[in-house]
């Protein structure tokens, strides 16, 4: 019997490889995966799959009028897909959009999706209770499937990143890679780095900075702090990770973290708070975790990770951590869910 068609919403997204890797791994199992378009609505067959990732892409527009039109089409799309016998799934990367936060409008748009989904997918257990209480559903409607690794995805160009930023080869380099925004705590990282007061330590921050996020010029003018407020190109990710000793993720809130999984993939130890999925994905032999309630927790963890440098370089912890994040396993679990 022919397998149903999987329609990803979206199949690919700029600056995020997750959807592409998930789609490829499902296709490697013999299923067809397509980028969903409105024209595909009339092609839907019973048991075909519509797999949502960031619902707001489909109901929010660039103006009030555009949002009204898109939200109406979004609701009609969901209703029509159900009438055609398609199955709907939502991987909850974050409960609310990062750029707007929780609003009544987003609540109802997402509530409509949740009510029509066969299952919701989360990447770790910490989100389950919040989703259940937010949308009034039972935990049996939620499946945990982890985020896959990035092994073999990013090939470097051989660029010496330390040389590019004038960082001495014998320095210890802390790094933050990813979108530079308030909820990711980069301001706290700058404060903690200042308090390290170490001539041998450098901090490299690379990623697109959110507009109007003031990090303080006095910090950025330091000769030991280096910034690149632009997206890291895919063909330079490997070079950036090769240049640093540890990754610092002082997040204030988090649902998923590609940055943490990238660090595991490249064998770089991580400093992170004990919140959400970070604690679930980062074992002790790959990270130093701190209590977010401790005002000195980040600083102490940054000191500790440097002291444990030789332990992390042994590397067996990273190999073990990546085994459970293998894409063929994730694809099979996803297909089992589609078929249930």
TrEMBL record:
Signal peptide positions on this chain: none
Residue ranges of every copy of the Glycosyltransferase subfamily 4-like N-terminal domain listed in the record: 78-148
Transmembrane feature ranges: none
SUPFAM superfamilies to which the protein is assigned, alphabetical: UDP-Glycosyltransferase/glycogen phosphorylase
InterPro entries: Glyco_trans_1 (IPR001296), Glyco_trans_4-like_N (IPR028098)
Record key words, sorted: Transferase
Limits of the Glycosyl transferase family domain: 161-304
A GO molecular function held by the record: glycosyltransferase activity
Keyword Transferase in annotation: yes
Annotated GO biological process: lipopolysaccharide biosynthetic process
Gene3D superfamilies: Glycogen Phosphorylase B (3.40.50.2000)
Keyword Disulfide bond: no
Protein name according to UniProt: Glycosyl transferase
Organism whose genome encodes this protein: Paenibacillus amylolyticus
């Amino acid at each position: 019997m022919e397998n149903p068609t999987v329609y990803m919403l979206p199949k690919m997204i700029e600056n995020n490889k997750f959807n592409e890797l998930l789609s490829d791994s499902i296709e490697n199992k013999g299923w067809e995966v397509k980028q969903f378009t409105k024209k595909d609505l009339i092609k839907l067959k019973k048991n075909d799959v519509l797999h949502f990732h960031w619902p707001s892409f489909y109901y929010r527009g660039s103006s009030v009028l555009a949002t009204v039109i898109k939200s109406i089409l979004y609701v009609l799309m969901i209703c029509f897909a159900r009438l055609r016998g398609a199955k709907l799934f939502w991987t909850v990367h974050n409960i609310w959009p990062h750029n707007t936060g929780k609003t009544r409008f987003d609540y109802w748009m997402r509530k409509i999706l949740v009510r029509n989904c066969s299952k919701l997918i989360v990447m770790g257990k910490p989100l389950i209770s919040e989703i259940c209480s937010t949308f009034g559903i039972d935990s049996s409607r939620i499946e945990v499937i982890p985020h896959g690794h990035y092994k073999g995805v990013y090939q470097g160009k051989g660029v010496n990143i330390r040389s590019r930023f004038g960082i001495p080869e014998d320095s210890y380099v802390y790094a933050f890679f990813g979108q530079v925004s308030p909820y990711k705590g980069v301001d706290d990282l700058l404060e903690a780095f200042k308090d390290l007061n170490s001539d041998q330590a450098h901090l490299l921050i690379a990623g697109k900075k959110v507009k109007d996020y003031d990090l303080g010029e006095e910090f950025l003018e330091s000769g030991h702090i280096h910034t690149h407020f632009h997206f890291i190109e895919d063909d330079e990710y490997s070079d950036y990770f090769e240049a640093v000793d540890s990754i610092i993720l002082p997040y204030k809130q988090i649902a998923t973290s590609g940055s943490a999984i990238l660090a595991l993939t490249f064998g770089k130890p991580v400093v992170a708070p004990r919140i959400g999925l970070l604690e679930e994905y980062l074992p002790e032999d790959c990270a130093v975790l701190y209590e977010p309630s401790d005002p000195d927790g980040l600083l102490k963890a940054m000191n500790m990770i440097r002291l444990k440098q030789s332990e992390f370089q042994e590397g067996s912890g990273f190999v073990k951590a990546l085994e459970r994040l293998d894409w063929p396993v994730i694809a099979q679990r996803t297909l089992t869910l589609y078929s249930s």
